[in-house]
Amino acid sequence: MNKKTIKDVDVKGKKCLVRVDLNVPMKNGVITDENRINGALPTIRYLMEHGAKVVLCSHLGRPYNIFNDKIKKIKPEDEGLSREELVAKTLKKCSLRPVAARLNELLGGKVTFAEDVIGADAKAKVAAMKEGEVVLLENLRFHEEETKNDENFCRALAEFCDIYVNDAFGTAHRAHASTAGIAQYGLCEAAVAGFLIEKELEIMGGALENPVRPFVAILGGAKVSDKIGVITNLLEKVDTLIVGGAMAYTFFKAKGYEVGTSLCELDKVELAKELTEKAEAKGVRFLLPIDTVVATSFPDPIDGEIAVETVPSNAIPADKMGLDIGEKTQALYADAVKNAKTVIWNGPMGVFENPTLAKGTIAVAKALAETSATTIIGGGDSAAAVKQLGFADKMTHISTGGGASLEFLEGLELPGVACLDNK
Ligand code: ADP
Ligand code: MG
Predict the structure, then answer these.
(1) Domain coordinates in residue numbering, the chain
(2) What is the pTM of this model?
């Protein structure tokens, strides 16, 4: 990796402003999943142990900008509420206070919570910090300047920052004040990656730049249009490209198959043709489903009971909708990854939220679990599917960033990474 990390700088006695991802799910002020908190701990602990003054910042949920003079973008259901009511509602739902309390338990009582981000409370608490202590600032997005990447806001945050550390991979594809802007004005001595970002870049970057072959990509999910960039970039690198999910039907259409009422992007059929031809020209083995699980309509509710049948992919009835890959395809795909050395997977093979339609996704997850290959899962729903289906601990790496991992697989430079110092 060509970016500096916290191990490349001397942090002793330094104020380290660390952008972490503490955007945890909460219900009535109670944290319902601590994964992201746990993910942030190694970097925080390292900095504490090395004598830094650790100033943590994060966003949480989709709050109102209650620290601005005028609160904007009021949701229809909150129309007519007074400012006080909006503030109270926002604090109840989106304050980082409960996260600070939990962090304090996990970090031996060393964590203090600041009730604002760049205000009097934050300033006082940071000024009082000793080495090895932690202050968590209140939700960055209580300021609209955060997502607007406002220069004055960056400068105010930089007051807490001798060294800037980015460890929030999930927001690294955004150019916000805390994720990128702050490193732009030369206000910090150094801008470095934390351990989470380092791991993402090493594993995913390593696979893309220098894959151990055979290198197989499995792409699925809802839309070709969401994944054009990923397909295009990976076509340059892989030995085999496997397509599943709703995306397959646009490719079927390009081959002249009937797709019935399946999700299909008619305006992307030409592109699907081009991508197929490109794969051929490059000698990339390109696999589409040979059989398809169909039903009369999309399951409603999504996890409700559904009657299905399996048909050959070139014989989808006009009144049926394709919702998963069939058994023959499952076997074909499992075989195609068997001897792979590197596999990148993005996008479920079917409507995995439904037990009847999760079989294709399960089969692929199982095949990956059984290979000796380095297996990398990117994408929000793909990560959720692998966890929900019980295969998480069998994968080499499940990316912590949904959108960020997709942009990374597209070969795009992430602003939250680009802003860090080169080695
Ligand atoms: P990721 O978030 O991993 O990038 P996507 O958002 O592209 O993945 O796709 C996930 C969604 O695709 C899932 O909600 C799944 O139900 C849906 N999906 C997969 N196959 C089909 C299909 N055949 N028809 C409709 N939806 C599908
Ligand atoms: Mg998704």
Answers:
(1) 6-60+95-198, 211-409
(2) 0.89
Helix (H) or strand (E) holding 106: helix 97-106
Please tell me whether residue 208 adopts helix, strand or coil conformation: helix
Nearest to residue 219, comparing CAs of 254, 251, 244? Answer: 244
Q: How many residues does the chain have?
A: 423
Is 148:129 a contact under the CB 8 Å cutoff?
no
The alpha carbon of 398 and the centre of ligand 2 are apart by a number of angstroms equal to: 14
**Contact call for residues 96 and 65 (beta carbons, < 8 A):** no
216 SS3 class: strand
Residues with CB under 6 A from ligand 1: 221-222, 226, 245-246, 263, 322-323, 346-348, 350-351, 353, 379-382, 402, 406
How many whole angstroms separate alpha carbon 221 and alpha carbon 206? 24
Superfamily for domain range 211-409: Phosphoglycerate kinase, N-terminal domain (3.40.50.1260)
For the stretch 161-187, pLDDT in tens is: 999 999 999 999 999 999 999 998 888
Q: Is 403 a catalytic residue?
A: yes
The answer to whether the 6-60+95-198 and 211-409 domains have the same CATH topology is yes
What fold, for 6-60+95-198?
Rossmann fold (3.40.50)
Reduced to 3 states (helix: H, G, I; strand: E, B; else coil), residue 111 is strand
Q: How far is the CA of 353 from the centre of ligand 1 (A)?
A: 9
Angle at 5 between CA 4 and CA 7, to 5 degrees: 115
Tell me which residue of 138, 169, 167, 143 sits closest to 154, measured CA to CA. Answer: 143
With tokens 């205000």, the residue in question is 119
Distance CA(247)–CA(29), nearest Å, equals 39
Residues 141-168 have pLDDT tens digits of: 999 999 999 999 999 999 999 999 999 9
Count helices and strands in the chain by DSSP H and E runs: 16, 17
The C-alpha atoms of residue 310 and residue 421 are separated, in whole angstroms, by 53
* Cα–Cα distance, 211 to 371 (Å, whole number): 16
